[in-house]
Amino acid sequence: MNLQDFTSDPSKTQEVASHVRSIIEAIGEDGSRSGLARTPERIGEALQFLTKGYHEDPEAILRSALFEEDYRQMVVVKDIDFYSLCEHHMLPFFGKVHIAYIPNGKVTGLSKIARVVDVFARRLQIQERMTTQIKDCIQNTLHPLGVMVVVEAEHLCMQMRGVQKQHAVTTTSDFTGAFTRKETREEFLRLISE
Question: What own/partner pairs with CB < 8 Å and gap ≥ 24 does 160-168 have?
Fold first, then answer.
């Protein structure tokens, strides 16, 4: 689902908007000036889109394109862009997700893997949890011989405030099964760095 397919709930938009108006006033701005007059509603709509992952079932997405296939080599989908909101400050963090799995009689459509990333990213999140949720979803749905997920991200809560480190990148990983073997992990890491 992209932005054109998304429809916000008007009642939720208005509920968020009423709180945003209070926030605008609390920071000392004039919420009635032309540039801010519709900002509360825009934020209400944007937050619904940015958190739509709460209303999607990632396992159902994978199952919607599940195919029997006797392929037992590594399947790698790398450089999946994602955007999420840090649950501590509600500021964006964004980057790339790299995923590999070794099928055990079943494969899924490649676009479904990218959609699973979006489901977990479109929630109030921390990178560590998101990494594990993606791994668990693929493992629990496809039952592969192993899964590995690597997430590389920049966090605006570190760049815009706090320590203000502009070029810091956080990398997290999680893996199961065949990826507990060092050689298998190294093969995946080599493939995503090419």
Answer: 160/91, 161/89, 161/91
- List active site positions: 86-89, 127, 155, 157
Alpha-carbon gap, residue 39 to 158, rounded angstroms:
25
Sign of CA dihedral 83, 98, 181, 168: negative
Number of alpha carbons in the 13 Å side-chain half-sphere of residue 96: 8
Q: Are 97 and 117 in contact (CB under 8 A)?
A: yes
Per-residue pLDDT of the chain (194 residues; tens, 9 = 90+): 454 578 889 999 999 999 999 999 999 999 999 999 999 999 999 999 999 999 999 999 999 999 999 999 999 999 999 999 999 999 999 999 999 999 999 999 999 999 999 999 999 999 999 999 999 999 999 999 999 999 999 999 999 988 888 889 999 999 999 999 999 999 999 999 98
Specify whether the CB–CB gap between 83 and 146 falls below 8 A: no
DSSP state of 3: G
